[in-house]
Design goal:
By secondary structure, the protein is an alpha+beta fold. Helices cover 25% and strands 31% of the residues.
Length: 362
């Protein structure tokens, strides 16, 4: 119902961004309810038409009277969350859940200029609303073992101990498949290009069409880690952060064996490689990687393709370098060590890629 909250969701004003981000840092347990409220606002796609203030007040009074009467007949299940005053408004604001959620949505619609459900010579107007907070299914894992969760679209989640996941009981009411994570989970996503899958973790949105990946974001953590096992994902922030190019409106792309680290306190992205990169090519491909006086350019090319990792080097400088080695059973980083030792080179991991430095071979 809050005008500043609606403006923040719809327009991403920098001052509003700063206010709400600071508030979420101070209230980490409220990420889920904020995400649910954002979803409600995002899915209200109606042409605005001004309604007289007097009519709005009459409708609000009637709704609140109905709520009070219904509360006398049943036990209260709603929680009211009072938020601090933002820099751009004078009053207090409230987010409602439970029995009051539907009423809050209706009031929100009226405040924003909801057209009458029936208008002269126009007939009824269609409305498509996001599922309310009460329609979300929440799974908690209080045990010390991973919990398997099956989503309505056929996707599966392995929810780590101490973690929580929330999702709609159906993915049919919106153009995306949205879930809300607090903690750590491994995702295996069913492919559906027409309906992208999104994981909302407070500050970040992870978008994917079909892949497997892991997200770790506990409330006490100072960093968020997103690791891709197969496929490709894009990760974006709710506000501008360091490490996010201005030319990448869809976010940072993360591929297999890469890990994206988001430092929450300084709002900075860092892309790196996982600790133990794995093959991304099918098992039917020969993994022997045995070389006999093989040009190092060919060795790096094969290594990069097998692991799906970019390897950057000066091909002209290394055109005389060859490698003789059996790398069949060596882990990725040991392979790199052996190759670089053979040609007198060094390597660094930069932005999720391997950069080779060498003076060349005689």
């Amino acid at each position: 119902m809050d005008e500043d909250f609606i403006r923040w969701v719809q327009h991403k004003d920098p001052i509003d961004n700063l206010f709400w981000e600071n508030w979420l840092v101070q209230n980490p347990s409220r990420h889920l309810i904020i995400a649910e409220a954002r979803q409600i606002v995002e899915f209200i796609q109606l042409e605005q038409q001004t309604i007289p203030a007097a009519d709005v007040q009459v409708e609000i009074t009637q709704l609140l009277t109905t709520i009070r009467q219904s509360k006398k007949k049943a036990e209260p299940v709603a929680e009211m969350l009072l938020l601090p005053v933002s820099p751009k408004r004078r009053g207090r604001i409230a987010i409602l859940s439970g029995t009051a959620a539907a009423a809050a949505v209706i009031i929100l619609l009226m405040i924003n200029g909801l057209p009458r459900l029936t208008q002269a010579n126009k007939g009824p107007l269609p409305m498509t609303l996001a599922p309310s907070a009460s329609s979300l299914i929440q799974k908690d894992n209080p045990s010390d073992k991973p919990l398997s969760v099956n989503l309505p679209d056929g996707s599966t989640i392995s929810l780590s101990p101490g973690s929580r996941i929330s999702y709609p009981n159906k993915f049919t009411t919106s153009s995306t498949r949205d879930v809300y994570l607090s903690g750590e989970a491994y995702f295996a996503i069913a492919k559906n290009p027409a309906k992208p899958f999104r994981v909302l973790t407070g500050e970040l949105i992870t978008r994917v069409l079909g892949t497997s990946f892991c997200i770790r974001m506990f409330e006490k953590d100072t960093v968020i880690r997103i690791t891709v096992h197969t496929g490709k994902i894009s990760v974006s922030s709710q506000s501008p952060v360091e490490g996010m190019p201005d030319s990448s409106p869809d976010g940072l792309i993360v591929t297999p064996n890469q890990q994206l680290v988001y430092h929450r306190e300084i709002k900075k992205f860092q892309k790196t490689l996982v600790e133990k990169p794995a093959f991304v090519v099918p098992d039917t491909v020969d993994h022997s990687m045995v070389y006999e006086d093989t040009p190092v350019e060919k060795v790096f090319d094969q290594l990069g393709r097998y692991y799906g990792i970019g390897i950057v080097f000066d091909s002209e400088l290394l055109n005389k370098c060859t490698v003789t080695a059996d790398l069949a059973n060596e882990p990725f980083y040991h392979k790199l060590d052996l190759i670089c030792k053979a040609i007198g080179a060094n390597y660094w991991i930069v932005d999720g890629q391997v950069v080779i430095q060498s003076n060349g071979c005689q």
